[in-house]
Amino acid sequence: MSAIPSVNLLSYVSQHATIIENYLGKLATFGEQPEGGLIRPVYSPPWLAAQQQLADWMAEAGLTTRTDAIGNLWGRLEGRESGRAIASGSHLDTVKGGGKYDGALGIIAALCAIRFLKETFGQPRLPLEVVAFCEEEGSRFSNTFLGSRAIIGNLTAEELTENLDVDGISIFQAAQGCGFAPDKLATAHREDLGGFIELHIEQGSLLDHQGLQIGAVRAITGLQHARVIFSGRADHAGTTPMDLRADALVAAAEAILQINHLARKLGHPAVATVGMLSVLPGARNIVPATVEFTIDFRHSDNTIRASMAAQIRQICNEAGQKQGVGVEIEKHVDRSAAQMSPQLVELIQESANQLEITNMVMVSGAGHDSQIMVEVVPTAMIFVPSRAGRSHSSAEFTPIEEIVPGVAVLAQALHTLAY
What we know:
Elements: H1 9-15, H2 17-27, H3 45-60, E1 64-67, E2 73-77, E3 85-91, H4 104-121, E4 128-133, H5 146-152, H6 157-162, H7 171-177, E5 193-201, H8 206-210, E6 214-220, E7 222-231, H9 248-266, E8 271-280, E9 290-299, H10 302-323, E10 326-335, E11 338-339, H11 342-354, E12 359-364, H12 370-373, E13 379-384, H13 400-418
Parallel strand pairs: 3-4, 3-5, 5-13, 6-12
Antiparallel strand pairs: 1-2, 2-4, 6-11, 6-13, 7-9, 7-10, 8-9
């Protein structure tokens, strides 16, 4: 690793902040909707136009550009030595009605950090690369993390042909229609990366509430999605005594309250959300016979998350027994937490401290490409504040003065790794 840069990178990034702003503003025009927000699904015309604009900016910055078989865009600054490349970036696609920072900011931050390093220090010792992952959000296909999964080699050819969008177009067909080569998927696999850092808006409000400038992400939370079905008995609401009822909704309500209490008792970063609820037969004068609800619960510690799963199951079963109704729990998604590289987390903290940028170590409550990349590449994340925690919304906002410290920390860390 190199010594502290001779140029103060925070000052340099601050002086060139308009470049970051201009890039963000321009990229946000691709997929912009009249009612607000962006719609930029993978392989769509606005996605292609945005990718071409990024490729032009990369070339202007002196980077060699290419796209791989699945449609990831890479910009490379060659090193003086032929070692493993250090990469940074994020995803180009958006959710429907999303904002201009989620994903896009990480790509632009990486591009600007590498551009500023090149302008200030010249050619690095090791290669530096910017990556715009083709897809992360799952807004067109049910598969997610297409770009990063192809890079680490765990995206299969079968997934490309079997997964269809609402128009019946497969991932393979959509990628091929854009000029990529999904039949050569294996060539997208990278085994020559020595590190990866992703900058992203927090998508939560911890940094904003605490007035801190950046977060060093130590873990990305694990999650489980489940559906709970309470099966009781439909009875007349006027003639059925309270003590003779098998009310599915009362059981569900008790379970929902207890699940909420469990997450609150465990404290941060435990969260649990009941987001969908269905009541049948759904009439005002009939005791509810069947209630279904969904649970999304998360924790960055896999052991604690497993304990949460067991306690939630117990809560639901006890609520059902109390009301005399049956309980069925279906597990739909079970994703382990991803621990970031301790060395890179420490490097991000050190870089922030060197630049006198306030920081904290934190957990990401949302998923990111970094949780895929860390399976094979030393990986960490930098969070910048997200006003009021807004994300996946046209209200998503981070002012440039709160972006600059993150880009400076990213540049400082990349300098340490590559120069």
